[in-house]
Task: structure prediction
Amino acid sequence: MTDAKPIVAVTGANKGIGLAIAQQLAAEGYGIAALVRQSSDALDAVLQQGDQHARFTMDLADDHSITEAARAMLALAGIPAGLVNCAGTATGGLFTMTSISDMRQLFDVNFFGQLALTQYVAKKMMRAKTGSIVNVASTAALLADPGTLSYGSSKAALIHATRVMATELGSYNIRVNAIAPSVVETEMGQMMDEKSRNRLDERSALSGVINPEDIAGLVSFLMSGQSAKITGQVLRVDRGMPF
Result:
């Protein structure tokens, strides 16, 4: 991998929102360090576009895997200009029916694993005194909808962490922001039951759907110099859903 272009690390880049982000950033000239459990044909197509791209195997539920993937990425690509925490898992269930054991496993992926990777990368960014970190959260973190206890709580924790990291890392010229989409047209989004989706549609000011490319465009903005004065923010992509 060459160091001629800025490198952005993207978790979950093999499908859905993460793939759309990798595709857009690669098209804009960024090098992509894809941190994924497994690849996909679509991701492979992105990585084959240039030698500034590379894939690193990582399991967010495994601390050792996170450390090894981060070390390999830094050894090959150097300190990334950006980090996009997009990987995640979802599960639903009413509070009284929620398994605490399952909830812990979800937090390992959606929160603790993300923090472990970000902590490792941020320490390197601090040396470079620059960087942009984007955490992909969810409006489930902001709304008290039935059945969203586990997923929403994990994303709410990620949003709070985003704000704290922005406060602590700002003196190193590292920006940290979160994007909170409503349901996005992905494999994960299609898991939501029709009744819940209809309820969200009824509460939205704008019609239509949210596509992965809508999130990718916002990530591109947050990686660019145009967002140089933006940090600690939670940017909602929800078609105008009131609280």
Notes: Residues 7-237 form a domain with the Rossmann fold fold (CATH 3.40.50.720). The two ends are 45 Å apart (CA to CA). Strands lie at 7-11, 31-36, 54-57, 82-85, 131-136, 174-181, 234-237.
